Amino acid sequence: MVLDLVVIGTAITLGPLHNSAFILLLSSRRGVRQGLAFLLSWLANLIAVIAVVVLLTGGQPPARHSTPSTAAIAAKLAIGLALVLYGAHRRHRPPRPHGPPRWAARIDNASWVMAAGLAWLMQPWGLVGAGAATALEANLSTTGDWLALTGYCLLATLSLIVMEMYAVWAPAAAEARLNALRNWLGQHQEQLIVTLSLLAGLWLTAASVYELVA
């Protein structure tokens, strides 16, 4: 479970789309405040999904090879295959120009509610679903599994936490460097999406097949 959560959390935090959107928020007139709203909403979404899973299981993993356990593994397998197919499709399609999103023109007048809602929309729900399916294996009577779930939520939010702290502590330097990062992310967006989709998808597929046949 722990290794799966590390892979999923890493793939989430490195996603170029939400990181680019977050940098745009930070560069706005009330950037730090809007960035904090985005970050907290992002983290709250992850925690809420895990909380729902824990409530459904009562903090006890379903018995191995039971119907709920097999369904969770099958869900991870389906998500893994979908990510592989999606990555392969993006890899072979003609390149498309990537301009700034439509909402970027209204960013200075955006409210914290819009920033929080944007985090919900930008969340990679396929990977979040894979994290939820993995969390079914958690046994909350052990400290290790509590730490694993907490670490997963923080890891999936790590890039946002680092950028928010950087913008608070060194705003002038952060603006220049984060905008340079956003330009780089825009130039390499397709490669990053393809790479993350394929790597996460292949891992989830292989791990799920192993769990089903072991």
Q: What can you tell me about this protein's structure?
A:
This protein is mostly helical and 214 residues long. It has one domain (2-213). 77% of the residues lie in helices and 0% in strands. It has helices at 2-13, 16-26, 31-57, 67-92, 112-122, 125-135, 143-155, 158-169, 171-187, 189-213. Helix 1 (2-13) packs antiparallel against helix 6 (125-135) and helix 1 runs antiparallel to helix 10 (189-213). The longest helix has 27 residues, at 31-57. The model has no long low-confidence stretch (mean pLDDT 86).
Secondary-structure blueprint of this entry?
Elements: H1 2-13, H2 16-26, H3 31-57, H4 67-92, H5 112-122, H6 125-135, H7 143-155, H8 158-169, H9 171-187, H10 189-213
Helix pairs in contact: 1-6, 1-7, 1-10, 2-3, 2-8, 2-9, 3-5, 3-6, 3-7, 3-8, 4-6, 4-10, 8-9
In short:
77% of the residues lie in helices and 0% in strands. The chain has 10 helices and no strands. It is globular and about 55 Å long.
**Low-confidence stretches at least 5 residues in length (pLDDT < 50)?**
none
Number of domains: 1
End-to-end separation in angstroms reads: 15 Å
> Could you tell me the strand content as a percent range?
under 5%
Series of secondary-structure elements, N-terminal to C-terminal: HHHHHHHHHH
Q: How much helicity do the residues have?
A: over 70%
Number of H- or I-type helical stretches:
10
Task: Specify the structural class.
Answer: mainly alpha
Q: How many strands in all?
A: 0
Major β-sheet, in short?
none
- State the shape: globular
Radius of gyration: 18 Å
The overall pLDDT, averaged over residues, is 86
